[in-house]
Amino acid sequence: MSENTRTEISSLGEFGLIEHLTKNFETHNASTVLSVGDDAAVIDHFGKQTVITTDLLIEGIHFDLMYTPLKHLGYKSVMVNLSDIYAMNATPTQITVSVAFSNRFSVEALDEFYEGIYVACEKHGVDLIGGDTSSSQKGFIISVTAIGEVAPDKFVKRSTAQKGDLICVSGDVGGAFLGLTLMEREKRIYLENPQIQPDLEGEDYIVGRLLKPEARKDIIEFFAANDIVPTSMMDVSDGVSSEILHLCRQSNLGCNIYEEKLPIHDAARKAAFKFGLDPTVCALSGGEDYELIFTLKQEDYDKITLNEEIAVIGYMTDIEEGCKFQTKGGNTHPITAQGWNAFVK
Ligand SMILES: Nc1ncnc2c1ncn2[C@@H]1O[C@H](COP(=O)(O)OP(=O)(O)O)[C@@H](O)[C@H]1O
Ligand SMILES: Cc1ncc(C[n+]2csc(CCOP(=O)(O)OP(=O)(O)O)c2C)c(N)n1
Ligand SMILES: [Mg+2]
User: Measured in Å, how far apart are the chain's first and last C-alpha atoms?
Assistant: First the structure.
């Protein structure tokens, strides 16, 4: 397809567009009994339990199209939902995708967005089984629902951590926030002086963390292969400190977290210093890392030491102890939820 082709959505109409966007996608899961094309889809998880989650992505709130390629946006819209399914220790099987957009979008633009959706589906073995398509007066609105399966009562909640459990985080945290800080800075410079080209040299890691997060399927597979069942779990969308407080509040416990144990990538640390930010603050309050935060019984410690993708950052305590953060200098502070909140500007 030529770069300059612009096909108006009106040339296809709503039903033509849906057919165009979905016709080449085949379903792969046995649980997908009926897919796109009827009043509803039908799924059958053959005795397993069904896990379901949904998240909205709103232009200007969750993403900025000035620096977000549509293919990446499609991919990320799916990933943030799959991340919630993995956070239940479940396997994603189907998604629905609903979109609303203004006439500033062409068929080619939506094709790009769906390319990203399909790449994410392929990678995680998920079927697209339906959705909805509408117009919006202003802005691109995306709503994805993900469905998954889990063996009966094997899902992992936020509320079941026990005193003494180890608190663990997968991968590294803070990078996506630094990617966002960089993109917002470059956008500002560009708007002030459009002749200046964005300077993203050497910043691929943090930009990648923002634009193409990876839901941690590998961690769930590692648990299954090593007979590990976390005592509680959730994904890191709003920032580590905010998520730890959710685990503590819902489990009626306190915690001790150690600054020196926070997994921060070198590229993120360097970027933080460049922007005059504290890497620890970025890791605790940044958000959009889409890593898993979970608690484990102490006797499982040996099973995870060999996995370099898992860091132990602290442990759960009695509720009376409060939620505490110990700095590298040995000072102790209460943890506050300074994570992302769509209603706080
Ligand atoms: N408008 C709503 N109506 C009903 N339930 C909601 C609504 N918004 C959020 N929830 C529910 O509240 C819980 C927490 O949501 P949220 O903080 O968005 O979690 P996550 O970070 O996993 O997306 C979830 O169970 C979610 O389904
Ligand atoms: C334009 C823009 N503004 C702000 C952000 C930062 N941001 C967007 S969503 C989000 C966190 C998660 O969003 P939320 O809607 O709370 O997801 P949920 O917790 O429901 O999964 C963050 C930090 C961004 N990526 N782009
Ligand atoms: Mg949500």
Answer: 41
Secondary structure of the chain: what % helix, strand, coil (to 5)? Answer: 35, 25, 40
SS3 per residue for 187-249 = HHHHHHCCCCCCCCCCCHHHHHHHHCCCCCHHHHHHHHHCCCCCCEEEECCCCHHHHHHHHHH
Number of other CB atoms surrounding residue 56 within 10 Å? 14
Specify the DSSP class assigned to residue 317.
E
The CATH H-level superfamily of 166-334 is: PurM-like C-terminal domain (3.90.650.10)
**Is 47 marked within a binding site?**
no
pLDDT band at 2 (very low <50, low <70, confident <90, very high): low
Does the beta carbon of 65 sit less than 6 angstroms from any atom of ligand 2?
A: no
Short-list 342, 327, 324, CA closest to 253: 324
Q: What is the pLDDT of residues 114-154, one digit of tens each?
A: 999 999 999 999 999 999 999 999 999 999 999 999 999 99
**9-150 and 166-334 share one CATH topology?**
no
Which helix (H) or strand (E) element contains residue 124? helix 107-124
User: Which amino acid does the sequence have at 221?
Assistant: E
Mean pLDDT of the chain: 95
| Surrounding residues of ion ligand 3, Cβ less than 5 A | 55
Out of 3.90.45.10, 3.30.1330.10, 3.20.20.140, 3.40.50.300, the CATH code matching 9-150 is: 3.30.1330.10
Q: What's phi and psi for 178, nearest 5 deg?
A: -70, -35
Residues 337, 322: Cα–Cα separation, whole Å? 13
- The yes-or-no verdict on residue 3 having pLDDT over 70 is no
Domain ranges of the chain: 9-150, 166-334
Any atom of ligand 2 within 6 Å of the Cβ of 184: no
